Amino acid sequence: MDEPVAGVAAGAPRQVHVAAVTEKHLDRVITVTGTLAAEDQVALAFKVTGRVEEVAVDLGSQVRQGQVVARLLPTDFELRLHQAEAALQQARARLGLPSTGEEDVVDVDSTGLLRQRRAVLQQARLTRDRMKTFFDRGLSSRGDLEEAEAALEVAEGQHQDSIEEIRNRQGVLAQRRSELDLARQQLEDTILRSPIDGAVRERQVTVGEYRSAGAPVLTVVSTDPLRLQLAVPERAAAGLEVGRPVHVHVEGDSAVHEGQLARIGAAIDEANRTLPVEAVVANRAGTIRPGQFATADIVVGSGETALLVPADAVVSFAGVQRVLILKDGTAHEQRIRTGRREGDEIEVVEGLQSGDVVIRTPGDLADGVSVLVSGE
Questions:
Q1: Would residue 137 count as lying in a domain?
Q2: Whether the predicted pLDDT of 282 surpasses 60
Q3: Please, where are the H alpha helices in 33-138?
Q4: What single string gives the DSSP state of each residue in 218-253?
Q5: For a pLDDT cut of 70, what percent of the chain falls above it?
């Protein structure tokens, strides 16, 4: 509506805009206050120790799951990787495998060491058999036979030792493969990635700083959805159910943020006789933040009839709320008690009746002053 016309003559009726008190069906709600919190909060840290080479985000930066947020200087880890690769190549060569490749299966009988010891064993066995034949025929002495038998036992021991050596080399190969995998993983761990979608809440490191493994680098919080932590008075807790709609208001933001009751505590807090509950609040636009104070209307029923007046018709002073009612061309002051706010309207719990006409934006208009309703 237009503003009242200025410059009226002294004593003339004041021009005002008016609105009728209306009845509307409102949901039955429980109004409580609480604090918004992040659904998830993660303190990010490197798994390895090193010097910070890059920090790709800062306070308030939006991050996506898997996004690189920081890096360590990789030089030392690259050298360890090359060292592990060389040690693996050496272990493969000792087993007769190609220096490169992923297949570590070895045919033990085909290794050079075992073939050599097998040949020595075969030669010793033939020599012993020959000496036994000569001894049986009286062509050689017992000492020659005993010497051949001793040589055979040595050859058998060397053959067994070669089998154990091959097994040992296989174990060394497996160890070198694990060391290579570990070196690769440590090199990969020099890159720090965000495990969740969210925003940087705190940055705890600078480029060039030496950082120990596990020391916090960044704190990331999820911002959509948010978790609203509330304490509902015991007397109002009976109507609560998971899934109930929740209308959330935050300071400095006229928008109503929609949420849903997600968790209800198992017991009443004996200290303050309240029931802890949590609501999940959508925040796709990112206009609300973890840590903000919020007022929540938890819908527990529907169909209540309420009286509503425009918010600009209500005047509050020293804790007293009042409106000016239009009666017979005169403004009459009326004290009221208000309830919920619904957009641009306020619920009147006490002091008015349906059909009453209130003056909007009364300003300094006093009780008993003659008024004239202004046109649109």
A1: yes
A2: yes
A3: 75-94, 112-136
A4: EEEE--SSEEEEEEEEGGGGGG--TT-EEEEEETTE
A5: 96
Say if residues 8 and 260 touch (Cβ distance below 8 Å).
Answer: no
CB 52 within 8 A of CB 72: yes
| Amino acid residing at 184 | R
Q: Is the pLDDT of residue 336 over 50?
A: yes
Res. 53: pLDDT tops 80 = yes
- Residues 68, 204, single domain; the answer is yes
CA separation for the pair 105, 244 (Å, rounded)? 62
213 shares a domain with 274: no
Cα–Cα distance measured from residue 239 to residue 29, given in angstroms and rounded to the nearest whole number: 10
Between CA 359 and CA 368 the distance in angstroms is: 13
Cis before 225? omega within 30: yes
pLDDT at 239: 76
Q: Could you tell me if 218 and 69 are in contact, meaning their C-beta atoms sit under 8 angstroms apart?
A: yes
User: Which CATH number fits the domain that encloses residue 15?
Assistant: 2.40.420.20
Which of the 8 DSSP states describes residue 269?
Answer: B
Q: How many domains is the chain built from?
A: 4
Cα 121 to Cα 107: distance, rounded to the nearest angstrom: 19
Is pLDDT of 9 > 70?
no
159 neighbors 180 (Cβ within 8 angstroms): no
Residue with tokens 């040992």: 168
Tokens of 325: 């009612």
Q: Are 127 and 152 in contact, with CB atoms under 8 Å apart?
A: yes
Cβ neighbors of 45 (< 8 A, separation 6 or more) are 192, 213, 214, 215, 216, 217
φ, ψ dihedrals at 58, nearest 5°: -145, -175
* Residue 101 is assigned to a structural domain of this protein: yes
Burial of 74 (0-12, 13-18, 19+ CB in 10 A): middle
**Nearest to 290, CA basis, from 203, 198, 205:** 198
Tokens of 281: 């609040």
Judge residue 230's burial from the number of C-beta atoms within 10 Å of its C-beta, 0-12 exposed, 13-18 middle, 19 or more buried: buried
